[in-house]
Structures are given as C-alpha cells and as structure tokens.
Amino acid sequence: xxxxxxxxxxxxxxxxxxxxxxxxxxxxxxxxxxxxxxxxxxxxxxxxxxxxxxxxxxxxxxxxxxxxxxxxxxxxxxxxxxxxxxxxxxxxxxxxxxxxxxxxxxxxxxxxxxxxxxxxxxxxxxxxxxxxxxxxxxxxxxxxxxxxxxxxxxxxxxxxxxxxxxxxxxxxxxxxxxxxxxxxxxxxxxxxxxxxxxxxxxxxxxxxxxxxxxxxxxxxxxxxxxxxxxxxxxxxxxxxxxxxxxxxxxxxxxxxxxxxxxxxxxxxxxx
Length: 271
Ligand SMILES: [Fe+2]
Prior knowledge:
The chain has helices at 5-8, 37-40, 69-72, 240-246, 261-264, and strands at residues 2-3, 12-15, 20-23, 31-36, 54-60, 76-83, 87-88, 91-94, 112-118, 120-128, 140-149, 153-156, 160-166, 172-179, 197-202, 205-210, 222-226, 268-270. Strand 2 (12-15) and strand 3 (20-23) form a beta hairpin. It has one domain: Sandwich (Jelly Rolls), CATH 2.60.120.10. It starts with a strand and ends with a strand. By secondary structure, the protein is mainly beta. The structure holds fe (ii) ion.
C-alpha cells in the first residue's frame, strides 16, 4: 500500500499491485464506475486487441465529510480515476476522450483541472471546429500532447477535448476538479476511433501517427509542459483538494470559463 494522503490532501491509500484504493476516516463514499475494455474498443487503433477486462476505475464526488458545500453550493466536484498499466494492441492504455459543453450558447466550453497523484499521465488535448462533425467533415484545429508527473496540475482549457494515456508500466492515479453542472460528450471520437493522433509502439519504438480516420488535413501535433497557475492556487506539490476546500472562489474559472480564459492558458507552456 502506498499512502497518497500527503499528495492528495485527503486520507487515501493505493495498492499498485491490485489498483485498489482505500479511504481513511472522514472520507465520504464516492460513486463508483468502471470502464471496460469492450467499451473502449471502438476508440482503439487495434480494436480486436487482448487486454484486462477493466481498464480504469472512476470514483466520483469523493471528499471529506463536512465538505459537501463544495458541490451543493459551489457546484464543484472532485473525482479520482485509477488506470491499470497495459497495452491495448499497439497503443498504451488510453481513455475514450471527451468534450465539454459551454455554460451557455456562445460562451467558451467548461474546462477541467487534473492533478496526478501516482505515476505519470500523458494528456492529449484536441480542439475541433464542430464537436458534432463526423470523420469526413471534422476540422481539427489544434492537438497538444502534455506529460504530467505526480504533484503537477494539468489544465484542460475550454474547447479542448481530452484523452488520458498511461505510458508507464505502473498504474496511474489522478484526480480532477470540475463543474458538476454538465455532462461530457464524445462527439465523433468513436466514429473516428479516437483523437487525431495515436501514440503507437512498434518494434519497441513509440511514435505519434496520424489517425487515418480523419479525412480532413490535420495540424501538426504540438507539445506542452504543465505550469503552475498561482492565482488559482495551482502549484506543484500543493494538493488541489485542500486548495479548493479552503478557497473555492479560486476555482470560479471552472464555473465561468468565459471570465478566465487567458489565465487558464498560463497552465500550458507550448514548446
Ligand atoms: Fe473532462
């Protein structure tokens, strides 16, 4: 068992051998869901691959007893996700990828902020002109890949769909703060079998390849590094669970992204 309490900011233990997490005293029972390999198959470069039955676990609305107002008053939800280390055909384990809607028509979309608690995440962020457009029509405007280590935060800026990849031979545990007032949607990611670039390993070499299911020309893949955003309290090694419970007002960017777009981009240094 690895004690993640210091890095997470709430009592939490993790068993890397089984990917089980256990909560200490004072933590509310979260809602729990899994994502199975069969549900992910349509998103994969190699949909018929072998792999574990469960690819990741999601623990939604986790938190300390007494912190219920963060959701009920501030509409902020804290979730934890646990990803097994595995290969899915030529690709390392990845999530299905999704987009967020906007608070109202014409506004920028809801963002999200991630924090890695164990392992290392590789995020792929993708912006498209029309989230409902199919593989033949969809115009990809930007794709950014960003590696994030334990203790670092990762801003998912408005309008950018996101996929999480675990490239390591050990599990990945991460958490997020997000506005609770919307449902994510998948756009054409399933019809396109994932985002515009696949990370594939062949003969022991990993490389990014263009997803051939996107009919329109693709922009070059860009790379970014995560950066702290002090005005939101997002600093390396400072658990964002604790920051948000002490200063929920600093997380207003999750609720009113239209007022904070410039500050949010400080979280990504594009190379
Ligand atoms: Fe999201």
